Amino acid sequence: MKSLKIFVLIFCLFTINSAVGQVRITVNADKKDQPISRNLFGLFTEHLGRNVYQGAWAQVVENPEFVAASYWPVRDYGNRMERNLRQFQKNFNLTSLIDDSENGFAAFWASSGNIKGRLLSEGILDFQQVKTGNEKGYIQTGVFLPIHRTAGYEVTLKARSENQTEVVLQILDLNETLLGETTFELTPAWQSIKSKINLSLAAHQMGDPYLMRLVVKPNSVTEFSRILSFPDDHIDGWEPELVALLKSMKLPLLRFPGGNFVSGYHWIDGVGPIDQRPVLPNPAWHGMEWNHVGTDEWINLCRLIGAEPMICVNAGNGTAEEGANWVKYCNDPASTPMGKLRAGNGHKEPFNVKIWEVGNELCGDWQIGFTDGDDYARRYAMFAPELLKADSSISLIANGLIKVLEKSELITRGIDPNWNYKLMEYNGDLVRSVSVHSLVGRAIDENADPVEGWKDLVAFVDNYPDFLHELVVEPMQKANVEPKIAITELMDWPQPPSVGNVTSISGALWYSGIINTCIRSEGLVELVTRSALMNHGGGLRKDRGLIYTQPVYWSQFMYSSQPGTIPLSVETMAPTFNSSGEYVIKGENIPVVDAVALLDEVGNSTSVFICNRDANTSQEINLVIDGFVAKKDAELVMIQSSNLALRNSWEEPENVSPVFDKISVKGNRINYTIPPLALVRIILEVD
User: What single-letter DSSP state applies at residue 609?
Assistant: First the structure.
């Protein structure tokens, strides 16, 4: 595979076919702009779908708290829970699953058929009661396991029994071959019992489904409240591959915990001992919020990967006092009430979270706490002073208008077009920075020509400076406030599998264009948190226990892992194209090649980024670097695909993957041919 990639790279770089454009790029290392913030290369996540649970969080059980199917919110999604149960039943051959969920058994748990089940509760505790007759019985659920990494699993079972008895936990394949088991001794009192299980997996393949079974004795009454199962190589609960990939890309900034989720989230629910954390329906999305992952766990992930944490507070159905207490919990010394609470949860030293966002997308009617510009302006005026009083050293970001230039009703519902003006008129210089969310392309449908849809997406990038100026700069300037923008959600969002989006090469190149625009913004854009961490928005995905990358991960990797922060003057002479504007916006004379260059702080290296946005034509690049004497060899990494719609999958995780190589520099010049739909990073070191 590696040799094939090298061959493809050499072919792309040195073979000029009949359709080749001519591009000249001149980088002048003597002409420098002010340094950019590395926070331009950040990432966003929230409690949405399988982003956290069944995603970045390594715990493998689908319903670890034994709650009823009726707990899952339905809202306007149709009967998604029924569809999920049917798919789960099919994946794991659990033929009685749906019937059992209607007859006394927890969602995603099936019974052996010879037992009686009841779902009960005591205070905030939900539990599954199982009553057997003269024969033993069991309940079971399906799990996907990362068997490619480990055969060992750590299990914690919270349970009790009417009389002292044993419960056996078994892992089986779908042929009911026993692969491993462990025994728990139960008493009439609730206990959380830890055990380890090692599996015999010689005959099994990555991605195989398994059964997790709890076997109970005859003539017994047993109650299960929680079961947690982590692979034994987890890192403080997080997937080790996730941690390694985020560390490798040197992720500078992570925004959490939402997103729409945060507008109904109360942070106090997610701190403290797990037995004191309520299990609740997710307030924004179809799913459960187990509250296994809260502030402490998120901060720990940031520390594991070396990223700065950024928190968005609940300005939907939350209060200013609640938000201020969250700041105090994170940043107060252990001597104060909130600091003492944090210390009691095992974190004596403050977290020192310095970036706080006041609400999320409150201008749209899909949001909990949806409102108009006048009301949010007053809401911000209540929140901001309280948050700053809690810690005057923090940086606040106000919730800005959601606006995109496309034919999508989803992003225009209920929006007050004067939102940002009202925010600034009411608050003035209390507003330091305003958020922008750019989620673009939902109007590209299944009948779209993929290339024409892609051209419209590139036209949005080409128009982005004007878009930001109209959306944020003008309202802030009118209020005599220095403009500052925080792009806190970002992705290209077409839905049909036949076109490109954030999960294909389209996402990698579209992200590059937005980041290049931000690099050239002369400090106007202070940070970007791309959407999203895992299983949403592109980047990293986990399917059937396997984690793999999507192209936009490598695009972000190219920017975040290189050392440069000082933008250099770049002049590009390239062919152009036009877009129709049928799906997003119309554009004319759009350069097919986009390029930026970043110098490191000590002047030892220059990183040059070159993106060929043409879907059909290779580009012969003549790159000249003035004012920088480079070594004869430079590092090169490229992500490329000639197919806009090609995706990676758990079966084929490297359909679109990067190539790493060296390239020759002759007299501070590089000549090569970049293929269609490609992003290249070249790092030149001073000689």
Answer: E
